[in-house]
Design the sequence.
């Protein structure tokens, strides 16, 4: 099913004309309203008039996470504060988060792309949407919420946690649609099993899973255990939140809503654009955003784009499942985690050496984050309660900064492998990216 | 009497204690008493040794984390009620808290020995010496 056939099935030539028109307007806006972009354009010797065709896109400067950090909190906004009606935030590379802003128009756009997303899985006003994405600063919860309401479906804004109660609601209220991270979907299935509930017996029929990478094998497992069609979604706060792309019922790649988000694949080393079909870093440009238009945002996500027409009738390009990251960002329970954030926490605690190892594992389908910290002579005392207090202190600080809990394990000095050059800080035992 | 105890941080996995003991034996250090306590992740090995300085040097050279602590070494009669009567009850009455304790027997005497970590070393020593 298609929510907005006019745009979603637009012939590509027409779509490209629309994209160019919108790109030119968006570029003119950032040039006029956002000093960061005016300087970046000047540094490249370009003005909005330099953009005469979509091929000129590669003349434009990139935007990176670092740029968000350097302009924290709202230096990249293109509207005065009075026009901003909503803020969300996600993790940056250091202690400071990335703050993103929305005008009334942006919220409208977001609801629209999320209505498209849900409709892509056949959701209608007959459906009951169990929304277990987190509500709050994270964009997942409210993004799905507004989209489902736009369609007229019934929303259960259950957010994360209290898993047994979630299963009770699913059964009692007859949820037909599940929205959550893929790992939480499996956790729901395991918990249900312990309760003697078979989720295949519920009314669940389709699920929208994203905010973290997952494999085809996980998809098969989710579909088998929950008895629903598991669709992959993609989005990021810097661009809008969820609602950048989604799979249709053919599960053959995620259609990018290209009338609002212009997608490119670049070589992450050289920054040069790569042709369709080649794997590289996904770069996104917003075309219709008001509060926070973003030009050529380097997502750090590795994928490839395929323009061949899809059986569903949509003309939008499809992106493959995310195959990896260009940086050291980890996604744990849907939350972005950077080793640099963990390092900054450890350095603030007296006597703790910055020798640490991050271990991510998936125990019973939920991601577990463990941080191993070497015990130096400075912090060692002959008392368990003080060593445990140290563990707890590090744990509390990590939770404050990361927004998720991490287990801290004290280890012997020099037991963490020292490597020449860049230390290998992360051991990821999950199989998140597939092959 | 007061003695110096060595405490060593050990990860709670096979081979770590063996490593520590090898380091001590290579340094010709003899163990007088040893106690192990652990959490799920890590343990602390506490020992009274024949030569504390040599032991600390060897342990640090081996890259292990260690600290020294003043503890009490008390000889008690190796008979039923000996520990309670001569150590635990007097300390309780004097309001001294025992943080941990371990025991061993010295051959070929009639005595047993306990090592105690208390919250007030001076007072405990006074209490136990009958002073």
Sequence:
């Amino acid at each position: 099913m298609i929510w907005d056939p006019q745009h979603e099935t637009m012939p590509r030539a027409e779509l490209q004309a629309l994209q160019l028109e919108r790109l030119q307007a968006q570029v003119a806006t950032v040039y006029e309203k956002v000093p960061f972009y005016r300087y970046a354009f000047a540094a490249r010797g370009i003005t909005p008039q330099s953009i005469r065709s979509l091929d000129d896109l590669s003349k434009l400067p990139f935007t990176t996470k670092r740029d968000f950090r350097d302009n924290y909190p709202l230096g990249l906004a293109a509207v005065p504060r009075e026009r901003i009606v909503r803020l969300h935030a996600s993790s940056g590379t250091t202690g400071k988060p990335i703050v993103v802003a929305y005008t009334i128009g942006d919220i409208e756009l977001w609801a629209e792309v999320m209505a498209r997303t849900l409709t892509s899985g056949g959701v209608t006003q007959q459906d009951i949407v169990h929304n277990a994405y987190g509500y709050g600063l994270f964009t997942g919860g409210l993004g799905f919420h507004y989209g489902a309401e736009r369609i007229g479906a019934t929303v259960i804004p259950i957010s994360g946690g209290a898993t047994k109660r979630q299963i009770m609601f699913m059964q009692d209220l007859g949820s037909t649609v599940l929205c959550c991270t893929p790992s939480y979907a499996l956790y729901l299935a395991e918990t249900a099993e312990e309760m003697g509930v078979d989720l295949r017996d519920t009314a669940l029929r389709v699920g929208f899973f994203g905010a973290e990478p997952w494999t085809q094998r996980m998809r098969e497992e989710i579909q088998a255990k929950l008895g629903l069609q598991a669709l992959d979604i993609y989005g990021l706060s810097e661009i809008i939140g969820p609602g950048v792309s989604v799979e249709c019922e053919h599960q053959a790649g995620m259609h990018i809503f290209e009338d609002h988000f212009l997608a490119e694949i670049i070589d992450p080393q050289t920054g040069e654009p790569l042709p369709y079909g080649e794997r590289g870093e996904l770069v996104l440009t917003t075309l219709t955003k008001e509060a926070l238009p973003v030009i050529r945002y380097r997502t750090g996500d590795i994928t490839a784009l395929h323009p061949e027409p899809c059986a569903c009738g949509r003309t939008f390009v499809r992106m493959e499942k995310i195959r990896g990251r260009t940086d050291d960002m980890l996604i744990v329970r849907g939350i972005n985690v950077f080793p640099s954030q963990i390092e900054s926490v450890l350095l603030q605690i007296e006597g703790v050496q910055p020798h640490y190892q991050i271990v991510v594992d998936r125990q019973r389908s939920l991601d577990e984050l463990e941080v191993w910290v070497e015990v130096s002579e400075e912090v060692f005392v002959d008392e368990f309660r003080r060593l445990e207090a140290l563990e707890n202190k590090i744990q509390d600080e990590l939770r404050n900064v990361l927004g998720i809990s991490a287990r801290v394990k004290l280890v012997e000095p020099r037991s963490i492998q020292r490597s020449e050059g860049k230390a290998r800080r992360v051991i990821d035992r999950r199989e998140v990216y597939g092959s | 009497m007061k003695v110096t105890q060595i405490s060593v941080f050990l990860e709670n996995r096979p081979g770590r204690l063996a490593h520590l003991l090898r380091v001590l034996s290579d340094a010709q250090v003899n163990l007088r008493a040893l106690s192990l306590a652990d959490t799920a992740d890590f343990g602390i090995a506490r020992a009274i040794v024949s030569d504390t300085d040599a032991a600390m040097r060897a342990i640090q050279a081996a890259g292990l984390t260690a600290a020294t602590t003043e503890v009490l070494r008390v000889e008690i009669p190796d008979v039923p009620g000996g520990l309670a009567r001569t150590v635990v009850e007097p300390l309780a009455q004097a309001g001294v808290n025992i943080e941990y304790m371990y025991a061993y027997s010295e051959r070929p005497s009639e005595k047993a020995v306990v090592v105690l970590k208390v919250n007030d070393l001076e007072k405990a020593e006074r209490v136990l010496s009958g002073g």
